[in-house]
Amino acid sequence: MASETEKTVHQCQCDICQAGNDDETVRHHRQMNLFLSRLNEPQRRWYVGLLSQKPGSASDRQLSLITGLDEETIRRGRRELEAGLTDVPDSRQRREGGGRLPAEKKTRC
Ligand SMILES: [Zn+2]
What we know:
By secondary structure, the protein is an all-alpha fold. It has six helices and no strands. It starts with a helix and ends in a 27-residue tail after the last helix. The structure holds zinc ion.
């Protein structure tokens, strides 16, 4: 039975992974998509927007094939990063649905 995560993790569509003859790249792209599947939507486009700015990195089109994000989404992530993410609230400050409580600091008496 396929694991639940497999359904939500994007399968890379780049030429290298399609050919399947470069294990290192295939593994790297799979891990990128696994990582992306754990991020929320803005985080995904910021991460890929950031990757797109790395010197010598893949083109937006290539990153779009790898991650499944639209090229426009990647450009948007890049623009938001350049703008300092000012329009986007810091989700850590208020997270819906509770989740983990902040660790209590141990106070010494
Ligand atoms: Zn790939």
